[in-house]
Amino acid sequence: LPAKTDGHVEFQDVTFSYTEDRPLIENLSFTAKPGHTVAIVGPTGAGKTTLVNLVMRFYELNSGAITLDGVDVTHLSRSELRSKVGMVLQDAWLFGGSIYDNIRYGNLDATEEQVMAAAKATFVDRFVRALPDGYDTVIDEEGNNVSAGEKQLITIARAFVADPSLLILDEATSSVDTRTELLVQKAMAALRTDRTSFVIAHRLSTIRDADTILVMENG
Length: 219
Known about the structure:
Blueprint: E1 9-16, E2 25-32, E3 37-41, H1 48-55, E4 63-68, E5 71-72, H2 78-82, E6 85-88, E7 97-98, H3 99-104, H4 112-121, H5 124-128, E8 138-139, H6 148-162, E9 166-170, H7 178-192, E10 196-200, H8 204-209, E11 212-215
Parallel strand pairs: 3-10, 3-11, 6-9, 9-10
Antiparallel strand pairs: 1-2, 1-4, 4-5, 7-8
């Protein structure tokens, strides 16, 4: 596949189970067109996270196929596939290092201009400007010196600088402080623009704005 793909994803009659006797996902077929948002909704344990893990090839299918731009994902190496996917999970993972380096981790070839553009697009710039050391502020190993919402914004900026064709977003439900919540939603929306996105959605606004809604229930 070329470095930048269109992000056309197709599930073709996909069946997956952790145990033989109980399929979690059975005969699932749908298409995510380039630039579209797929909202995945359903109760805990319904298979929402499993679905996105199948896109990333963390597990292999029992039957059926998942294709990216017409190519079966099993024909791509895991590293090649994952290089095309940006992930923003509920538990924002940051390493002990500067805010700048944490953003640039999304693309180690990124220029300073690209890092700053990502930070501005995702509202990281807003709170970093108020810090005495700005982008050189070192995040401690536990990430205790930035708020949960600020962590989320930094990981969204990291995904932004990676410029992936495909996005997997897990909306935070409770860890984000109210002040930053709106900024996180806006940053997520900016990141989704022109990218195929799979969103494990908890907010009505996200579900309402999606192009496709997948409701998962007991697999």
